């Protein structure tokens, strides 16, 4: 290298000429060969002059190898002690080696600087967040957190490298931390720092077993939700009495033989709307009760053969004006552990929906069957079906696929919301398959720990129609 001062500016315009200089190994070797040839020629002439040709040639070779050893020594010294400084000015293969090593180091340092800058910016962004962010390592020790975590979770500087379970001792949190996959929506817990404040926590696994914990204050949302529940509950209770009175008077007047015939149609419509309002109020009160009792245990052993037959009988009574073919398949030996009233209400909603939204003389099949370690209550119909665009929102309150059709059938828009709440409280979930004009299948899927095998399976197996 003729100018070592160019080396620190490896990435500037001179780097291209330097790269060209050392672009081929043949070029590097030829430079050393020329040097060797020059030394041997000089030694040969001296040897001829003093009549010691062979001796001078050997001395020339020794000089060449001594120079190579000196270059090797300088390379070793630079790599071991001064690799951050420009390399010594060497020619030939050793110079090319030094240049390439130095260039690789420069590139690596540039990449490291960029990575450090990126990490600094990411960390600054996390520090500015109002949400708490906590990193937990593979041993479940606290590794890093932002200032919001100190405000929301009460973490302190001395908590670093301590097990997260010894800092956040809430039993629900420990259960969530150890079984993250069982809580797809995260966890809401009451803050240990201030009474009446609530924190939403979401944990994500990454790497081998590291975890990212994100938490944020949901106190305002909880208060608004509680206000909504109280409002719905109070309004529903307040509506119940006047609706009962109104329904009673309407029924009395409608049954009066002296009522003019032209008024009967109006009274009939008023009775229909009153019944619809009563159904809506009852559903709202049921939803409110389900929400308030979400933490209560559901540990009754429900005889599914008896419940399925009861549901089938009720469905036959409801089916009178529709003329459907109703089928009952009881293929599972298992009973259920839960609340019989709540499950009967949820299953009944699925059955009445199938009957209502199936054109006359269709087929509705009610089943209780096993699927591996799970058990499924299903209702299949040959109805009008549901467009796949609507399926994700079916269980929302008052969501209607077709508002006109819901008014004609007298639906309240709360049936599937009730089903969702009941199933969630029984650790179950709802599966829906539907195609327009081909019908639908609604499945309530119950996990193994909610099943109770009967003592005499033969008594629980039957098929009905």
Keywords:
5-stranded antiparallel sheet; 465 residues; disordered C terminus; 51% helix; alpha+beta; disordered N terminus; Helix Hairpins; ATP binding; phosphoprotein phosphatase activity; 14 strands; Beta-Lactamase
How would you describe the overall organization of this protein?
With 465 residues, this protein is an alpha+beta fold. The protein folds into four domains: 4-120, no CATH class; 129-217, Beta-Lactamase, CATH 3.30.450; 221-292, Signal transduction histidine kinase, dimerisation/phosphotransfer (DHp) domain (Helix Hairpins, Orthogonal Bundle); 300-464, Heat Shock Protein 90. The protein has helices spanning 14-21, 25-50, 53-81, 92-128, 147-153, 164-167, 171-178, 219-254, 261-292, 304-318, 340-356, 403-409, 415-425; strands spanning 132-136, 142-145, 187-190, 198-206, 210-217, 300-302, 325-330, 335-338, 363-371, 374-381, 429-435, 439-446, 451-452, 462-464. A six-stranded mixed beta sheet has the order 11-12-10-9-7-14, covered by helices on one side. Helix 2 (25-50) runs antiparallel to helix 4.
């Amino acid at each position: 290298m003729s100018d070592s001062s160019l080396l620190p500016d490896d990435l500037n315009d001179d780097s291209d000429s330097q790269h060209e200089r050392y672009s081929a190994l043949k070029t590097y070797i030829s430079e050393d060969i020329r040097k060797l040839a020059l030394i041997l020629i000089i030694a040969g002439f001296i040897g001829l002059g003093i009549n010691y040709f062979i001796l001078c040639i050997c001395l020339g070779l020794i000089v060449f190898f001594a120079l190579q050893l000196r270059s090797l020594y300088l390379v070793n010294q630079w790599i071991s002690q001064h690799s951050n400084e420009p390399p010594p000015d060497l020619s030939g293969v050793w110079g090319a080696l030094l240049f390439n090593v130095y260039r690789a180091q420069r590139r690596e340092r540039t990449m490291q600087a960029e990575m450090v800058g990126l990490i600094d910016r990411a960390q600054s962004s996390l520090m500015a967040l109002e949400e708490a962010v906590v990193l937990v390592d593979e041993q479940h020790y606290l590794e890093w957190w932002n200032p919001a975590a100190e405000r929301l979770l009460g973490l302190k500087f001395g908590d670093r490298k301590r097990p997260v379970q010894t800092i956040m001792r809430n039993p629900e949190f420990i259960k969530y931390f150890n079984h993250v996959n069982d809580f797809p929506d995260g966890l809401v817990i009451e803050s240990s720092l201030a009474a009446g404040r609530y924190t939403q926590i979401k944990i994500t696994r990454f790497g081998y077993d590291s975890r990212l914990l994100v938490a944020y204050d949901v106190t305002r949302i909880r208060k608004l939700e509680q206000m909504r529940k109280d409002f719905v509950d109070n309004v529903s209770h307040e509506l119940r009495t006047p609706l009962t009175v109104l329904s009673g008077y309407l029924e009395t007047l409608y049954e009066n033989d002296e009522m003019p015939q032209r008024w009967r149609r109006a009274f009939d419509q008023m009775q229909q709307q009153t019944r619809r309002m009563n159904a809506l109020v009852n559903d709202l009160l049921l939803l409110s009760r389900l929400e308030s009792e979400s933490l209560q245990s559901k540990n009754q052993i429900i005889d599914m053969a008896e419940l399925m037959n009861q549901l089938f009988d009720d469905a036959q009574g409801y089916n009178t004006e529709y003329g459907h073919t109703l089928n009952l398949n009881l293929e599972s030996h298992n009973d259920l552990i839960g609340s019989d009233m709540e499950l009967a209400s949820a299953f009944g909603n699925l059955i009445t929906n199938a009957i209502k939204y199936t054109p006359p003389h269709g087929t509705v099949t009610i089943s209780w069957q096993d699927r591996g370690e799970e058990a499924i209550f299903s209702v299949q119909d040959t109805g009008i079906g549901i467009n796949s665009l609507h399926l994700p929102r079916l269980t929302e309150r008052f969501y209607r696929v077709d508002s006109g059709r819901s008014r004609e059938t007298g639906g309240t828009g709360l049936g599937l919301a009730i089903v969702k709440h009941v199933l969630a409280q029984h650790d179950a979930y709802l599966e829906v398959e539907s195609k327009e004009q081909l019908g639908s299948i609604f499945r309530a899927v119950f996990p193994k720990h909610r099943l109770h095998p009967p003592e005499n399976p033969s008594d629980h197996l039957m098929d009905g129609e």
